[in-house]
Design a protein that fits this description.
single chain; 303 residues; alpha/beta; Rossmann fold; 2 domains; four-stranded parallel β-sheet; four-stranded mixed β-sheet; 10 helices
Length: 303
């Protein structure tokens, strides 16, 4: 093994040992890469004493809950779904830069209630080491609610989690990040169920046309800003496709449709939080008005 593989094996083993020390654990499980790796590790380390919990609200994109259920079945971990009501919180609807904090407080509170009823000693979240370098108000909520972050504690980066997920044959090992729909709405623009539904429908339309990595950002005045990888921008040069996009988006409820010429950037709405402001470097075009890893030594932990 090379040095990187040795380091990853050590982190994996430490993760399984750490989770085992919890005795029992409820994993906040969105079905994304990070929480899937954590759920898999919890199942390996704790067996029936591990549980995955998914929060369901209007901010979850269509199809994500079904994917989470399927992943939990494949992992073999008990899976529960709890309804969350962050949209009832004025602080959340106002959509300030700490919006995620209020969402996570609501989510962790609901998971904690279920964990207590189910006899789970610990609640864990899938935050990783890279999250500490980005704008993540939700990490403050985890700290306040005493939610464990074992992936970050063991030093896992996003790329390492992808490698481990591939080694464990998790089907979403290469899935693009899928944050909640509220993260698409520019700060200061109120979050409503109608706007979330508009974004969801628009993104589903683009996915149906072959785009895998994308965002539809909502801006003031019902304007959509489409982000796709730079190499995919050329598809919008086709007049027929462009016309179809505009017609579909306007039927959904957008008044203006624009294409971001910088291409896809995860967290682009947070650029202002890094000192660039909403104007920043952005340029938009308006379209219409491990297979090599050894297994863990103790056989009961597997993988």
């Amino acid at each position: 093994m090379n040095e990187r593989s040795v380091q990853l094996v050590a982190k994996r083993d430490r993760l399984l040992e750490l989770l085992g020390s919890y005795g029992s654990c409820a994993v906040a499980f969105s079905g994304g890469l990070d929480s899937t790796v954590l759920a898999k590790a919890a199942q390996l380390a704790l067996g029936d004493s591990a549980m995955a919990v998914t929060g369901l609200s209007a901010s979850m994109a269509a199809g994500e809950l079904d994917e989470a259920k399927q992943l939990a079945r494949q992992i073999g971990i008990r899976h529960e779904v709890v309804g969350t009501d962050e949209l009832s919180l004025a602080e959340y609807r106002q959509n300030t830069p700490d919006r995620c904090y209020h969402c996570k407080i609501e989510l962790f509170g609901r998971i904690e209630q279920l964990a207590r009823r189910s006899g789970m000693a610990t609640v864990a979240d899938g935050s990783n080491l890279d999250d500490s370098r980005q704008h993540r108000p939700g990490t403050r909520a985890a700290s306040e609610r005493n939610v464990k972050t074992p992936l970050a504690e063991c030093g896992f980066t996003k790329s390492e989690l992808r490698t481990l997920a591939e080694h464990w044959k998790l089907p979403n090992w290469d899935k693009p990040a899928t944050p909640c729909l509220s993260s698409r709405i520019a700060y200061g623009e109120k979050i409503t169920t109608e706007r979330l539904a508009m974004i969801d429908r628009a993104e589903q339309f683009l996915r149906a046309h072959g785009f895998r990595t994308l965002r539809v950002r909502y801006h003031k005045g019902d304007m959509a800003r489409i982000e796709v990888p730079v190499e995919s921008l050329a598809k919008f040069a086709d007049a027929d496709f462009r016309r179809e996009v505009v017609e579909q988006f306007k039927s959904i409820g957008f008044k203006y449709v624009s294409l971001d010429l910088e291409g896809f950037r995860s967290g682009s709405l947070d650029e202002g939080q890094r000192g660039k402001g909403e104007g920043g470097r952005r340029t938009s075009l308006e379209l219409g008005p491990l297979s090599s890893l050894p297994t863990y030594a103790p056989s009961k932990l597997g993988g």
